[in-house]
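Quick start: what a row looks like.
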Amino acid sequence: MEFVYALIGLIVGSAGMFGIRQAAFKKKSISIIADAEMIAERKKEEKILEAKERFLSLKAEHENRVNERNNQIIQSENRAKQKELALNQRKEELQKRQRELEISKKEADTIKNNLTAQLALVEKKNTDLERMHKEQVDKLESVAGLSAEDAKNELIESLKNEAKSEAMSYINEIMDEAKMTANKEAKRVVLQTIQRVATETAVENAVTVFHIESDEIKGRIIGREGRNIRALEAATGVEIIVDDTPEAIILSAFDPVRREIARLALHKLITDGRIHPARIEEIVQKTQKQIEEEIIEVGKRTAIDLGIHGLHPEIIRLIGKMKYRSSYGQNLLQHSREVANLCAIMASELGLNPKAAKRAGLLHDIGKVPDDEPELPHAILGMKIAEKYKEIPEICNAIGAHHDEVEMTSMLAPIVQVCDAISGARPGARREVVESYIKRLKDLENLALSYPGVLKTYAIQAGRELRVIVGSEKINDEDAEKLSFDIAKKIQDEMTYPGQIKVTVIRETRAVNYAK
């Protein structure tokens, strides 16, 4: 029974709870409906406001369009009125011009009548004049015994002979005057060209002195058992001389690029403090890249300074390499810049193209700095390089002919040759002293005289050519060819000289007899 009562109580409690929840749900639904009605009312008001704003916007836009249309109509009416006024003015001008033309026509008719009368009078006078002229000619022919045609021919012949003699005399005077002034004018052009160029003289040599703070660094550069200095020499190709000279190391090499790489690499190694073979090779490689970049930059800057455009990148690189090349102690880049400026000035004085002349002057010695150096004169090699990189034929010929190794075919060639000589011969341009120059020429002649069969030797062209005269009875043609090769080889092996030396062996046969 207790269980039944408990079950009944539970059912009754559940029914009560269900009623309470139903009442709560009903109350909540009423609240949601009220909220929804409020939101709907608010959205309705917003839509009405949007519609009103849209209407007002469309109305304002319509009014603007109507106003624009009205303005366009008013402007069209104004233009039409202006055109009408212009047409009326044009009509009045045409009417006025028509009246003036009618008056001018009447005046022209009057002038025409007067001219007709005057022409008739002139024709009558001409007829009378011709008749009188004919009578006078007939009288002169009867008196002179010559016809008018014969007399005219004789007069023409006499005048022709007189004109020829005067013309020949005038031509001779002009030729004499030209000969007298030609040398003077040429000297004036050359002197004016020299005076307008003033450049610094650069001094280059075969050694570079590297200064150090203390002699203790010399030991670190040499390294244990000399491994550091050997690695540095192998990497750069430069002879490094560490002697008793205080606070200095000497870098010796014929190639200025190698010396500069060695100098910069040594400076970086000493600054960094880590000096060992692996580090040396790394620094030298980085320095080589830096020098290559600097060479290109120097070439570009030189072309920009001289106003020369359109050069091939390889030619620009070769121009930059000129900075590290010297000839007779004269810096090659400075020499080429000087020749370029001289060529431009001389070409402008002579009425030629100064830009082309400046280009040829800058490139004239480019054959001295190629990466591979074949057995060719630098002028010929420079001409081939210019042809390879599409320079115009006039510039290529000027490069190849500036030492007379090819025939000059353009007006630029003699200008480049003369300006090259001016730059090299200018006082102070080249450092070679007279004593060493004379000694080198004497050594050159004595070397050739040491061969049997050689009679005389002459060093000419400032030591660029050696003339060897041999006896025809001692040396035949084949021996002469071999002698030329042997002398050139010995000069190359035993002597130091700038540029190249041409060896010419001369063998001639002479038959001598005496008449008694």
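That is the whole record. The chain is about 70% helix and 5% strand. The longest strand covers residues 454-460.
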